[in-house]
Amino acid sequence: MKMFVYIVLLQLVFTACQEAHEMQGNPPKVGQISLECNFEPLETGFLWAKEQALAYVHENDPVGPWFEAALPGREAFCMRDVAHQSMGAMALGLWDHTFNMMHKFALNISDSKDWCSYWEINRFNQPAPVDYRNDRDFWYNLPANFDIIRSCLINYEWTGNKDYLDNHDFMTFYNRSLNDYVRRWDSDGNGWMDSPAENGIRGIPTYWEGRGPKAFTGGDLLAAQFAGNLAFSKMLYFKGQTDEADLYHEKAERLRFQYNSEWWDRGLKRFFTSITQNGDSDTTMISLMQILPLYFGIVETGPEKEELLDNLPEGSNVEDNSYRAEVFYQNDRNQKAFECLMKQLDPNLDRREYPENPFTAIGTIVRYLAGIHSQPVSGRIEIKPRLPEEIDTLYVNDVPVLRNVISVGIIGQNSITLENKSGPEIEWMAVFAGEKNNATIDGSSIDIIFRNIENGRIESCVMCSVKSGEKRTLKVFD
Fold first, then answer.
1. Prediction pTM value
2. How far apart are CA 239 and CA 43, in angstroms?
């Protein structure tokens, strides 16, 4: 009898552990995703990006599973690139690789480095020698900690891996970055991080490394700090820590107000690039320094934002331009976004093989063109496609998301099919632009929910459940 009870208890424990692991996202098969559409340049571009990204993936090095996210040949990954490449990595099934790399950054934050981590880590699990000599002499771009926090939130939302919320090393990294790190690098106590000229490369207060006066505080640093606070606030809400979450949300909104009220140049119709070492506002036109505040979401809705988007120039290199499609999609400039995406996939693009370019192209296609989003707390998957004029049909197959593998078919502007190829039942919400009159699910009538978005626009939302192995089609009618 006792042995029977013991066996039953073991089975219960095993089941509970198995379910807990599944809720955190089992690593999917790497590289199973595929794409079909009626626009051949996108099909061939996607296939190239997938193959190029997977060529950078490594499994058996001392650092653990990883992919290249730095200059090819360095055999390393740096913080900015990993943060930006991670959405593409999620779509490619590189969940373990991304988690491992993020964890390495979290582990290596330290007081002796003024709460910086290692900017770049190589395959031998060492700080890359090109960037690091010792804790007093190393390269570091200060927006990086906040960029990683923002990315970890996105990774959690896609995979459902609760270690991004609960793991001690990650929580230490988030708390240290948003508190000790800020205080250590805020010499004038105004809440913005900064770095005097004598710091040199140990604390560059921006991602921009090119021409112009040396920054004391970069606009992108302020924007990244905003995004890090907002992301951690959302994590704390997920954990039920609402009072603490409110504090970080308030910090983020304070930074947003300061940036939008104090950094906008009415004459130039764009933001200042930085505050210089002597306290002046730098008006040098640097595209990346307009792109990144939009990317991090600090720019308020309004005429200034529209002016900025209307006049946003191309960046100076492939790294800068790998953000542009995302920025335009985030702001529903879908046709312009698609043009930027196709430039990333152009065979004639200079340095298109740079890892950030193929990874972000994959991520942009899945997250914005196909419009796949996930909500791990509710288990809901939302699909809000953004097809351009060139595309009538788009099929994205075998996408790993949460505990499921799904295939999505988008036909025109008014029809979406979702196949739940494996995993538990899905709560699915399809989102269509504009106010629609009627909707059907597999031919039967279904209610429409309307929601307001920026600038007074309306979206039509239709919801249903999709069981494992089931395929369902939602259509709307004008």
1. 0.93
2. 40
Q: How many helices and strands (H and E) does the chain possess? A: 16, 25
Enclosing H/E stretch for 231: helix 219-238
Euclidean distance between CA atoms 347 and 169, whole angstroms:
41
Beta bridge partners, 161, equal none
| Cβ proximity of 11 and 4 under 8 Å | no
Q: Burial letters for 158-172: b for 16+ Cβ neighbours within 10 Å, e otherwise? A: bbbbbbbbebebbbe
How far apart are alpha carbons 136 and 406 in whole angstroms?
Answer: 48
Residue 230: which residues within 8 A CB-CB, separation 6 or more? 150, 248, 249, 252, 297
* pLDDT per residue as tens digits for the range 374-397: 999 888 999 999 999 999 999 999
Q: Half-sphere exposure of residue 113, counting CA atoms within 13 Å on the CB side?
A: 27
What whole-number distance in Å separates Cα of residue 385 and Cα of residue 133? 47
SS3 state at 435: coil
**pLDDT tens, 220-279?**
999 999 999 999 999 999 999 999 999 999 999 999 999 999 999 999 999 999 999 999
Cβ 233 vs Cβ 245: under 8 Å: yes
Question: Residue 77's beta-bridge partner residues?
Answer: 69, 121
Backbone angles phi, psi at 140, to 5 degrees: -160, 130
DSSP letters spanning 443-456: TEE---EEEE-GGG
Domains, the chain, ordered by start: 25-370 (1.50.10.10), 380-477 (2.60.40)
Q: What residues contact residue 300 under an 8 Å CB cut-off, 6+ apart?
A: 256, 260
Q: Under a CB-based contact definition with an 8 Å cutoff, are residues 162 and 156 in contact?
A: yes
Taking the C-alpha atoms of residue 259 and residue 297, their distance in angstroms, rounded to an integer, is: 11
Question: What would the two tokens of residue 313 be?
Answer: 């120039």
Q: Which two tokens stand for residue 105?
A: 């950054």
Cα gap 127→132, rounded to integer Å: 6
Structure tokens at 219: 């606009």
DSSP string, 340-405: HHHHHH-TT-TTTTSTHHHHHHHHHIIIIIS-EEEETTTTEEEE-----TT-SEEEEEEEEETTEE
